[in-house]
């Protein structure tokens, strides 16, 4: 490393002292903590992002957000050139950088890493980083820290794209590396025009149904609400009312948002008895997840939740239907024998009834550990891979290979059977691939896809919710002395350590009809999570309670809480 570069790094880093006595870790959601202690971390992530860009010789992204956390928290994560999450191989280095105690220690880590990773660091190669942040008040000064980190690497350039949803930034990084327009207007244009195509392709039978085309969306008082206010004006045939837009003085994620709605199963602020019967949805604080709900008839504060598993099921059903129209017999074209490999990916948290439903549709269902990066990686192995966590994180991935095949089929149809059912199916699938974010789960594009499919089928939210009935479930968390004492295998369904705990859980689970239960250490909180399912709510509660006691007996302080 050149002397000027060393001096620049030392000088810049000396302005950002790390917090004392705090060890941060680049978890599933990047670094996250109280915003007041994050400046040095974000500065160092700025440096790391520049290195990532040099190493990959591509544009990468840096997003400042703490998603559904409280407004006083913030966080930072890196977007890889594909538009996906930072490669897991770099996570340990991110931890080391963040926790280096002095500028000198930081510099020597960087020097070692550049050598180990053979990062081109000759000042010839340039680095380019797209920056985004959510609406948190701390975002602006943290973004400044990131910029200073980036500019402490010679030849690194930062483009500040202002306030964005997390999926918008991922989308733009992906687009940029494919030499496509990587701007917010381009994003809105792509998703609104593909939505329009899907609506234009609705069968005449359902078009005549007087479908309820209004949806009310809780914007979590965050960036998603703000962006949806813009997007909704670009749509026809759908009326979106946004509440908790962040403009009315409401506090981000405070009694609002997808995380709150899904976990508490109560209405978000601003919703109540006047909304009974209406289709509602809730975004999280950075708009990378969404759940639907209706206000319950029995109590205006309770909801009937339509979660990520139901979205996955709706999407899988629609895609499967379109694929079967597309490959309908009677077409003698020899190119028509390319059956798409369609796969769905879930985690152990997926309700067992959803898995049964998907299998009954004849689909291949695969399980991975919790966390978007695991699901995404598996889904990318299919021609069409659909993944969702129950909490509303997910998307649909189309392989480049299969999309080119589909484009070619569509061109053939234009020549020989313009306007045929098969061509319509091809066009619908092409539109889905443009509407649904190919980089990462995106609440805004998932919202529009749900709305398009419901209109296509002429379904109400109630009809959709009746695809299958969720098995009663219960989640608990248990505080333990050391959560790393629990290790798991088989997509987190079996606890390997501490020894004997799985046997104890199995013995308890066997007592319940349709009983299913697993434990895992949380990646975001210092607790062990317990998930239980059974044929009645009482038995699910009881199973979860007993297993929480088992966890406590093996590892705890002697107290467990909900
Ligand atoms: C993170 C993950 C989410 C997962 C959750 C589990 C991403 C972007 N987010 O928020 O997918 O469901 O962690 O939290 O991967 P837990 O480990 O505390 O249960
Ligand atoms: Mg989020």
Structural account:
With 562 residues, the chain is α/β, with parallel strands linked by helices. Helix content is 41%, strand content 18%. It has helices at 3-14, 39-56, 91-99, 103-116, 139-150, 166-177, 184-200, 204-207, 223-231, 258-264, 308-326, 352-360, 372-379, 400-416, 421-435, 443-457, 461-465, 501-509, 537-555, and strands at residues 31-34, 59-64, 73-79, 127-133, 156-163, 214-218, 239-243, 280-283, 290-295, 303-306, 342-346, 364-367, 384-388, 394-398, 473-478, 487-489, 494-497, 516-521, 528-533. The strands form five sheets. Strands 1-3-2-4-5 form a five-stranded mixed β-sheet, sandwiched between helices. Strand 4, helix 5 (139-150) and strand 5 (156-163) form a beta-alpha-beta unit. Helix 2 (39-56) packs antiparallel against helix 3 (91-99), helix 2 packs across helix 5 and helix 11 packs antiparallel against helix 15 (421-435). The protein is globular and about 70 Å long. The model has no long low-confidence stretch (mean pLDDT 94). The structure holds 2-acetamido-2-deoxy-6-O-phosphono-alpha-D-glucopyranose (16G) and magnesium ion (MG). 2-acetamido-2-deoxy-6-O-phosphono-alpha-D-glucopyranose binds at residues 28-29, 370-372, 389, 391, 393, 522-525, 529.
Give the strand order of the largest sheet, numbering strands 1, 2, ... along the chain. Answer: 1-3-2-4-5
**Average predicted confidence as pLDDT:** 94
Number of helices: 19
What small molecules are bound in this structure? 2-acetamido-2-deoxy-6-O-phosphono-alpha-D-glucopyranose, magnesium ion
* Helix share bin: 40-55%
User: Would you count the extended β strands for me?
Assistant: 19
| Termini separation | 52 Å
Shape: globular
Task: Outline the biggest β-sheet.
Answer: 5 strands, mixed
Radius of gyration: 24 Å
The percent range for strand residues is 15-25%
Low-confidence stretches: none
Structural class: alpha/beta
Pfam families: AMG1_III, PGM_PMM_I, PGM_PMM_IV
EC number: 5.4.2.3
Enzyme class: isomerase
Cofactor: Mg(2+)
């Amino acid at each position: 490393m050149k002397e000027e570069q060393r001096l620049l790094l030392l000088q810049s880093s000396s302005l950002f002292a790390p917090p004392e006595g705090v060890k941060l870790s680049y978890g599933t959601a990047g670094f996250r903590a109280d915003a007041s202690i994050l400046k040095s971390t974000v500065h160092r992530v700025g440096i790391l992002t520049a290195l990532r860009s040099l190493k990959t010789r591509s544009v990468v992204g840096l997003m400042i957000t703490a998603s559904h956390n409280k407004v006083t928290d913030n966080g930072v994560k890196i977007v890889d050139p594909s538009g996906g999450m930072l490669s897991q191989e770099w996570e340990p280095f991110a931890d080391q950088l963040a926790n280096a105690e002095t500028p000198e220690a930081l510099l020597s880590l960087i020097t070692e890493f550049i050598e180990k990773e053979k990062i081109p660091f000759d000042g010839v190669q340039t680095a380019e980083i797209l920056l985004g942040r959510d609406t948190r008040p701390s975002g602006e000064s943290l973004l400044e820290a990131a910029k200073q980190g980036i500019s402490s690497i010679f030849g690194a350039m930062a483009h500040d794209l202002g306030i964005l949803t997390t999926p918008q930034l991922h989308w733009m990084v992906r687009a940029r590396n494919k030499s496509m327009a990587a701007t917010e207007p381009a994003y809105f244009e792509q998703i609104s025009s593909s939505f329009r195509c899907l609506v234009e392709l609705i069968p005449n039978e359902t078009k005549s149904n007087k479908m309820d085309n209004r949806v009310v969306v809780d914007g979590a008082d965050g960036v998603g609400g703000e962006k949806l206010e813009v997007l909704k004006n670009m749509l026809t045939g759908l009326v979106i009312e946004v509440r908790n837009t962040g403009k009315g003085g409401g506090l981000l994620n405070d009694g609002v948002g997808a995380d709150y709605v899904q976990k508490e199963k109560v209405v978000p602020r601003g919703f109540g008895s006047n909304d009974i019967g209406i289709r509602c949805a809730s975004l999280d604080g950075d708009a990378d997840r969404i759940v639907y709900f209706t206000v319950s008839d029995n109590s205006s504060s309770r909801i009937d939740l339509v979660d990520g598993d139901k979205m996955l099921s709706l999407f899988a059903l629609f895609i499967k239907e379109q694929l079967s129209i597309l490959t309908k017999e009677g077409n003698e074209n020899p190119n028509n024998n390319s059956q798409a490999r369609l796969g769905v990916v879930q985690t152990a948290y997926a309700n067992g009834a959803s898995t049964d439903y998907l299998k009954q549709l004849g689909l291949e269902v695969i399980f991975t550990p919790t966390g978007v990066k695991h699901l995404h990686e598996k889904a990318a192995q299919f021609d069409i891979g659909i993944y969702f966590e129950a909490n509303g994180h997910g998307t649909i991935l189309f392989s480049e290979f299969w999309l080119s095949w589909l484009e070619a089929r569509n061109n053939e149809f234009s020549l020989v059977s313009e306007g045929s059912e098969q061509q319509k199916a091809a066009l619908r699938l092409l539109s889905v691939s443009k509407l649904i974010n190919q980089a990462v789960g995106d609440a805004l594009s998932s919202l529009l896809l749900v709305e398009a499919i419901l209109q296509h089928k002429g379904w109400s939210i109630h009809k959709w919710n009746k695809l299958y009935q969720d098995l009663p479930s219960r989640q608990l968390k248990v505080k333990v002395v050391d959560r790393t004492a629990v290790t798991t295998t088989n997509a987190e369904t079996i606890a390997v350590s501490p020894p004997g705990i799985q046997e104890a859980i199995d013995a308890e689970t066997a007592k319940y009809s349709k009983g299913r239960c697993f434990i895992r250490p949380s990646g975001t909180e210092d607790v062990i999570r317990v998930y239980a399912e059974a044929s009645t709510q009482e038995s699910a509660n009881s199973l979860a309670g007993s297993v929480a006691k088992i966890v406590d007996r093996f590892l705890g302080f002697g107290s467990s809480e909900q």
